[in-house]
Amino acid sequence: MWDAIIITPFINVLLFIYNLVGQNFGIAIILFTLLIRLVTHPLMAKQIKGSQAMQQMQNDPEWQAIQKKYKDDKEKLAAEQMRFYKERKISPFASCLPTLIQFPIIIGLYQAIIQTMASTPIELLKLVRHIYPALLKVESLIPLNSRFLWMDLGQPERLYIPGLSFGIPILVIIVVVTTYMQSKLITPPSNNPGDQAAQMSKMMNWYMPIFMGYLAWTLASGLALYFVVSNLIGIGQYALLGKINWSNLNPFQKATPPTPSKDNKSGSGTKPEPAKKTEVEKLPAQTKTGSGSSSSATSKQKKYNAPKKPIKKR
Amino acid sequence: MILKKRFSLLLLLVAGALLLSACGGVMTASSWPGITGNGDVAYVAATTYVHAIRLSDGSEVWRYPEKAEPNRMFYAAPVLVGDQLIVGDYRNELHSINPDNGKLNWSFTGAKGKWITSPLALDTMLLAPCADHFLYALDLNGNLLWKFETGEPIWATPTTDGKFVYVASMDHHVYALDPATGQEQWKTDMGAAIIFTPTLSEEGILYLATLAREVLAVRNTGEILWRQSVENLVWSQPVVRNGSMYFADTSGKVYSVKTADGSIQWTQSIGGEAGTAALGVPAVLDDALIYGLENGELVAISYSGDRLWTRSVNGTLYSGPVLAGDRLLVGVTQGDRLVVSFDLNGNESWSFTPAK
Question: What's the rounded Cα separation, in Å, for the pair A91 and B56?
Fold first, then answer.
């Protein structure tokens, strides 16, 4: 089922592109990744919006106040959370469905690239069987031309310079840099010290580039090329949606505070107003009526909107 | 609203099912076990080890290396030359092992690609084809004598008539080389990649299959005598015997064609209704060819196309059995046993499963 629906069509599209661009597998990987990411862009946009709303909630002074107030009462906190979701029309699953639908496609994309770079007998036998004879001719395709720039896409990449006894892993460096950039640029800011997701993201921002770099170091460079292209497209997609936080790239910058949503009237500049103790104490009664004095909870109908402009560096 | 929810749920289920099917299944092997039989011992290259196995009872004599190394995979059938066992790995290294105790004599590390297939052993040299596009000529101490570059990886063991060495490359060409110097004598385009070693007849004709669903006969001067197209992919090495050539395809059909002109004499489907593929190199007996089928079946077929017997093992067979003395050794991929031994009538005698 997986092969018939995803892998085989993907491999044929990839090989079709490969033929179209004069049998250049590097260009084919780039174009194929771009194509798949374009097709899944609407889902990605939905996912980003959903997760952004969740992130903004974490930075909402009212929510932070609730968390603080009920930190020892998990049940009450859960009930308040549900109420908060309902009131702000936030769906905690809004980013899940697009992600789930994208998952098989992205995994399929990755597997199609791996399977097309067949370098052993069984892999090649499987690849040949995937090819639609009506669309593509095996004899003119196999073996694939795996040369791209200085690389053999079927082998781990190293650039050998005369005079140097070792190869420089250029692509590995690019993978690490672009993965780090992507992680940093798309991580939404959080000033909530209790936001575990943000802390996790912070750790991942360091671990992921190292992990991806290790994969690029050991696996075929065709995959490393895919990682780079995928990272760059990911950054581009976030930039298109205006969700990029360029100032996050500055390693010396402290945690960027969130930009308040358009209807967050308390937001003055980029700094959120901390929840006042007296307001927190009043919260339960206020929220029941939906007219909390916390400035971000002014309307039941209010929805979270992502900041329209990139957050400026403090 | 309800419709939207149902649609979302349906999408979720489809995505989940796809994900599960993507994650399922066992890890696939890269190739099938490479087996060589000699006297009392068989040498089996499979995944991370080369095993020496007693032919009498299937017990392990030694294994090489002592400890498995990541990504160091052995699949090419080991070759015995004098007191050395030569085997290449998937980490670009060619090893010479003492066949008595499994200790390393020397290794050649000058290649930059996988050793997919076995080298050809001549009296004083080894001709080792590599996936880095080169054919390496080494002396028996592992020193490079010369190397010859083709346009693509070489997955087929070279063959020789004593005068020239014939190399079939995935760059679509067959090359004739002078074994002393590596000088190219001629090359001919076969029209598609060649995976298996061409079979050289006593008359000096090379018979080979290409990925273009063709079998060809090529004179030892490079001239193509004939080519025969078939319906399916031929992922096997042709066998030549008494004026006929035999080969099988991925639908499980065995063909017999005349060596003189390539005309089809008969076909016999051994792959059943499902059309299971017959792959690799068959065992050649006096009265039969033994093919391995992808579904784990072993089929003996006579030279006139009669199906003689069928046996079955648990796993996948990507190649036919290897004849070792009076035994047929079947290398199993993704099965519960690595090697299964049969006598020439198809009676199972022992099996070998490597200890962990």
Answer: 69
How confident is residue A244, by pLDDT bands cut at 50, 70 and 90? confident
Residues 6+ apart with CB under 8 A from B255: B215, B230, B246, B247, B248, B249, B264, B266, B267
Tokens of B39: 């006297």
- Report pLDDT digits (tens) over A97-121: 777 777 788 888 888 888 998 989 9
In a domain, A201, yes or no: yes
CA dihedral B212, B216, B219, B222 (to 10 degrees): -10
3-state DSSP call for residue B339?
strand
**Smallest CA–CA separation between B112 and chain A, in Å?**
9
Q: What is the pLDDT of residues A29-68, one digit of tens each?
A: 999 999 988 988 888 888 777 777 777 787 788 888 888 8
CA distances from B40 to A110, A294, B87, B325 (A): 47, 87, 19, 9
Six token digits for residue B261: 């002109």
Most confident of A109-113, A278-282, B179-183: B179-183
User: Which of A97, A108, A125 is opposite residue B235, by nearest beta carbon?
Assistant: A125
Spatial separation of the C-alpha atoms in residues A6 and B62, rounded to whole Å: 44
Mutate to test the interface with A, among B18, B32, B237, B249 (most CBs of A within 10 A): B18
CA–CA distance, A227 with A106 (Å, rounded to integer): 12
Q: Would you say B122 and B83 are in contact if contact means Cβ atoms under 8 Å apart?
A: no
- DSSP strands (E only) in B242-347: 244-248, 253-258, 264-269, 278-284, 288-293, 297-302, 307-312, 322-324, 327-331, 339-343
pLDDT confidence bin for A253, thresholds 50/70/90 = low
Residues β-bridged to residue B139: B125
Domain that holds residue A41: 2-249
* Cα gap A64→A69, rounded to integer Å: 8
Q: What are phi and psi of A53, to 5 degrees?
A: -65, -40
pLDDT of residue B152: 93
Chain-chain contact of B29 with A122 (C-beta, under 8 angstroms): yes
State the total domains in chain A.
1
Q: Is the residue at A156 inside a domain?
A: yes
pLDDT band at B312 (very low <50, low <70, confident <90, very high): very high
φ, ψ dihedrals at B283, nearest 5°: -85, 135
Q: Token digits for A301?
A: 């109908």
Count of CB atoms within 10 A of residue B44's CB? 26
Answer yes or no: are the C-beta atoms of B194 and B170 closer than 8 Å: yes
The letter for the amino acid at A227 is: F
**Residues 6+ away with beta carbon under 8 Å from A254:** A314
Integer CA distances (angstroms), B212 to A68, B179, B195, B215, B228, in order? 70, 29, 11, 9, 10
Which of A246, A52, A125, A186 minimizes the C-alpha distance to B116? Answer: A125
* Residue position matching structure tokens 């580039």: A209
CA A141 to chain centre: 34
Average pLDDT, chain A: 76
Those residues with Cβ within 8 angstroms of residue A32's Cβ, 6 or more apart along the chain or in another chain: A10, A13, A14, A17, A109, A112, A113
Residue A220 lies in a domain: yes
A157-184 burial by CB neighbour count: b if 16+ within 10 A, else e?
A: bbeeeeeeeeeebbbbebbbebbbbbbb
Cβ separation of A2 and B32 shorter than 8 Å?
A: no
Q: Which residues of A touch B11 (CB under 8 A)?
A: 97, 100-101
CB contact under 8 A, A97 and B30: no
* A102 located within any domain: yes
Q: What percent of chain A has pLDDT above 90?
A: 24
